[in-house]
Amino acid sequence: MKENEIQDELTSIRSMMERSSKFISLSGLSGVLAGVYALIGAALAYNIIYGSGGFFSYREYVMADVDRSPARLFTLILIALAVLIASVITGIVLTIRKAKKKGQPVWGNTSRQLLFNMTVPLFTGGALMLVLINRGYFGVIASASLIFYGLALVNASIFSFKDVRYLGICDIFLGLLAGLLPGYGLLFWAIGFGVLHIVYGSIMYLKYDR
């Protein structure tokens, strides 16, 4: 009987330590919705860049003609911003709702550390992508976005679930593949930000949200 009590006590202490050192209020449903937003954005971007045609066909010219069409580039940037804003707002709202439901604080030392660890690679990658766009290197934009986003997730996973790290590693791998095959960049982008987010969010929802 005493052994069971000691085991229960150790389990309780371990749970308390994890709750204090890990941000566990992330919502799996927000990951699913972010993936859906990304797939919609990718479909719109593909139609603007390539028009009709097979989505899986290789595109040698990638986005080489976009620099001669500022309106098209501006539209693509608006689509990317819309996907980003919708994903962030959804994530914040659902995370707050989950935290309140579980009686956990949303903003604290752990969440601040997670945010810092994630934003440094994201802002660095964003700045680099602006430089690449300005220089006309559109073929590596998808690769850079996936790699830096993956690095941000791996960096932030220290203060969250291990599942976040696995998602980051997969995005880094897809980013490297997108760099080798720039004609498939948008397809890899759709898989990394769309499909993987839906799979990851579903797993997180089933494991932690139910």
Number of distinct beta strands: 0
Number of helices: 7
Main sheet makeup: none
| Contiguous uncertain segments of 5+ residues | 12-21
Sum up the overall morphology in one term.
Answer: globular
Give the structural class: mainly alpha
Proportion in helices:
over 70%
Q: Roughly what is the average pLDDT, rounded to an integer?
A: 77
Q: What is the chain-wise order of helices and strands?
A: HHHHHHH
What portion of the residues fall into strands of 2 or more residues? Answer: under 5%
Query: How many domains?
Result: 1
Ends apart, CA distance between termini: 31 Å
Structural Rg: 20 Å
Question: How would you characterize this protein structure?
Answer:
With 210 residues, this protein is an all-alpha fold. It has one domain (28-209). The protein has helices spanning 2-21, 28-50, 70-102, 109-135, 141-156, 162-180, 185-209. The longest helix has 33 residues, at 70-102. It is globular.
Question: Keywords for this structure?
Answer:
210 residues; globular; mainly alpha
Briefly summarize what is shown.
The chain is mostly helical. It has seven helices and no strands. The chain has one domain.
